[in-house]
Amino acid sequence: MLLAARLTSWKGHRVLIESAGRLKAEGIVDVRYVLAGDAQTRDAYAKEIDALIEKGGLAGTVSRVGHCRDMPAAMLAASVVALPSTKPEAFGRSAVEAQAMGALVIVSDLGAVSETVLAPPQASPERRTGWRIPPDDPAALADALKSALSLGATAREAIARRGRAHVEANFSLQQMTQQTLAAYLSLLTR
């Protein structure tokens, strides 16, 4: 199963749906893509996504499920959490939350999200916590999905452990509070 954590970006979901179509055309048909998130009164947007799924022959393969009350459980159930944003985000909370839950993550390499996921070439393969792909690139997302989904249990668990450790070391409330206070202190002592 694949989980796209939020229903916010038409282009991001278009990228995911096109990637699902590519993988289906390559014979990778044992994957289900779940688009979770409330359309928040954007009915036309939701209809466009549904039409794109239908046009791609992906009904039953890609599902839009609406609001998810228990994202931690959804992330635990997912083999991969994909966040193919096409616009920069200020932080990338969904990627951090997914790694904290031990999910494999694929994110667009733009904005602050890219700082939350360690991936080659910026990090060695032994430090990988997920995959970073160019924004708005269905082929790159399809390749990353194939790579993530083809991992054995040992490799998956190693990446999951590193992801959790990376989040705890860099994005815990305590760590972020200490970094903020240190920044303020350095300004006061100038």
| Main beta sheet strand tally, sense and closure | 6 strands, parallel
Q: Radius of gyration in whole Å, from Cα?
A: 17 Å
Compute the separation of the termini in Å.
Answer: 52 Å
Tally of helical runs: 8
Short descriptors:
alpha/beta, 49% helix, 190 residues, 6-stranded parallel sheet
Protein architecture, described:
The chain has 190 residues and is of the alpha/beta class. Helices cover 49% and strands 13% of the residues. The protein contains 8 helices and 6 strands. The protein has helices at residues 10-25, 43-55, 71-77, 93-100, 113-116, 138-149, 153-170, 173-188, and strands at 2-4, 33-36, 62-66, 80-83, 104-108, 131-133. Strands 3-2-1-4-5-6 form a 6-stranded parallel beta sheet, with helices on both faces. The radius of gyration is 17 Å and the shape is globular. The N and C termini lie far apart (52 Å). The mean pLDDT is 89.
Quick overview of this protein structure:
This protein is of the alpha/beta class and 190 residues long.
Itemize the secondary structure elements and their pairings:
Blueprint (H helix, E strand, L loop, with lengths): L1 E3 L5 H16 L7 E4 L6 H13 L6 E5 L4 H7 L2 E4 L9 H8 L3 E5 L4 H4 L14 E3 L4 H12 L3 H18 L2 H16 L2
Parallel strand pairs: 1-2, 1-4, 2-3, 4-5, 5-6
Helix pairs in contact: 1-2, 1-6, 4-7
